[in-house]
Specification:
Blueprint: H1 4-16, H2 20-34, H3 39-55, H4 63-75, H5 79-95, H6 99-108, H7 111-114, H8 118-134, H9 138-155, H10 158-170
Helix pairs in contact: 1-2, 1-3, 2-3, 3-4, 3-5, 4-5, 5-6, 5-8, 6-8, 8-9, 9-10
Length: 171
């Protein structure tokens, strides 16, 4: 099928298989297909595309588009995906060495107040741990990884628990 929802799902599947170029093309087509009449779906596709770009280590895309998608998601009442978009933005900032900006972004992300689901809490804490490591704050990183592990166990996602376990062992 070539309808926007099918393209988006196929794009996500391609990303999970590691075919990042194809995933980005499919997600871009889906976002265009949704258009402005379905702004929520379009913003979700934009966030997914930004995450795929991050996984592919393509940091050339504009951060403004991700920020605009996060604001649109907030305005449309999708708090969880808006929070996720901000976490993707913080991870991007870490990768390009913008530690101050990442710290500010993470300070604005309050997973407790947002009532975020456990997988988002785990991702937020993993990002906090990475920032702490970049700042050579080992105790802060260990604490963040502990919180990430608890959230991942609560989420019941084995791959996330394993990812955090590898980070804890490396620390």
């Amino acid at each position: 099928r070539d309808d926007p929802p099918a393209l988006a799902l196929r794009g996500i599947a391609m990303a999970q298989l590691g075919d990042y170029d194809r995933a980005r093309k499919l997600l871009r087509r889906a976002a265009r297909g949704f258009g402005t009449r379905e702004r929520l779906a379009q913003a979700r596709c934009q966030v997914a595309e930004a995450e795929v770009a991050l996984a592919a280590r393509d940091l050339s895309g504009p951060a403004r588009a991700l920020d605009a998608a996060a604001k649109a998601l907030d305005a449309l009442g999708d708090r969880a995906n808006a929070l996720y978009a901000r976490l993707v933005g913080a991870r991007r900032q870490l990768l390009v060495g913008e530690l101050e900006a990442a710290e500010q972004t993470l300070a604005a992300v309050d997973v407790d107040a947002a009532g975020a689901p456990p997988p988002l809490v785990a991702r937020a804490e993993l990002t906090r741990a990475e920032l702490a490591l970049r700042r050579v704050r080992v105790a802060d990183a260990a604490a963040a990884l502990g919180r990430a592990h608890a959230a991942a166990v609560a989420a019941g996602i084995p791959a996330l628990v394993a990812e955090i376990g590898r980070a804890r062992r490396a620390l």
